[in-house]
Amino acid sequence: MTSTIIDFETIKKAQRAGWETGDYPRVGNTLQIIAELLVEAADVRAGQRVLDVACGQGNAAMAAARRFAVATGVDYAVNLLQQGRERAAAEHLPVTFTEGDAEQLPLADGSFDLTLSTVGVMFAPDHQRAADELVRVTAPGGTIALASWTPTGMVGRLFRTVGRWAPPPAGVRPATQWGTADHLAELFGDRVEWTGLVEREFTFCYHSPEHFSQWFRDHYGPITRLSGTLNADDLASFAADLADVAREFNRADDGTVAAPSTYLEAVGRRR
Asked: Which fold has domain 8-203+262-270?
């Protein structure tokens, strides 16, 4: 039996084009509370060197900077980095934003006391290489803290719905595996002692299921890019499918959307 050879570089090139489409921070900014809770769980302190990997517009980096940590954000989507710089300037937060690939961080070994990622590094297609990089840049005895969507929550359902319209590359493992303790154990082995593995909920709030669908089609880069490839009939069907995801998980009874999605908050010590 021959193993599948995965062209991770080509996959990342397509992913990057997706994240640079639309306006992801319009979605990402709504997730700020996830970063605040992660920074709290990781016990970020003033003066510590903190790295936010696959930072997007810098939610975790900015949360760390509010605690007077020395915060750096790294991402390969330059438009997201620029919005991060603009946000940090508006809030007078001294965050450094650096262009870089989560699977090949342009940073020295052991150069950070804490390495964080909020629903970011989970999208690196080569899970093992990304995990290895998190370990490499974290100082021994430092902290690695991750917030990752789970396979069984609303976002997991959303990704499976999108996958019916645009199947993922063969051999690439689902991003939501990062939201399971077993997968973290496989990726990090005995290099990280997980001291906290807590399943939390984030609630997506929108005017209606249709508003949720429209917002993600307009702003969530990979979905925006996919939408641009569909003819009118398929786009209408795709839009309805996205609305159905919000409807399936919705707990509001007033016509709006208040739909919880589970994510795994993982905090560990780098051995």
From this structure: Rossmann fold (3.40.50)
Alpha-carbon distance of 240 to 148, in angstroms, equals 26
C-alpha 203/C-alpha 259 separation (Å) is: 5
Mean pLDDT of 131-147: 98
Yes or no: say if 161 and 176 are a contact pair by the CB < 8 Å rule: no
Give the list of residues 6+ apart from residue 6 with CB closer than 8 angstroms, or none: 125, 126, 169, 170, 171, 172
Largest Cα–Cα distance of the chain, in whole Å? 57
Cα end-to-end span (Å), the chain: 37
Q: How far apart are CA 22 and CA 220, in angstroms?
A: 6
3-state secondary structure of 173: coil
Tell me the percentage of the chain whose pLDDT exceeds 70. Answer: 99
Give the residue extent of every domain in the chain.
8-203+262-270
Which amino acid is residue 229, in one-letter code?
T
Which residues, listed in sequence order, are joined to residue 99 by a DSSP beta bridge? 75
Task: Indicate if the pLDDT at residue 180 is higher than 80.
Answer: yes
| Per-residue pLDDT band at 2 (split at 50, 70, 90) | very low
Residue 1 reports pLDDT greater than 50? no
Residue 236: pLDDT over 60: yes
Helix (H), strand (E) counts: the chain = 11, 7
d(Cα 96, Cα 102) in Å, to the nearest integer? Answer: 16
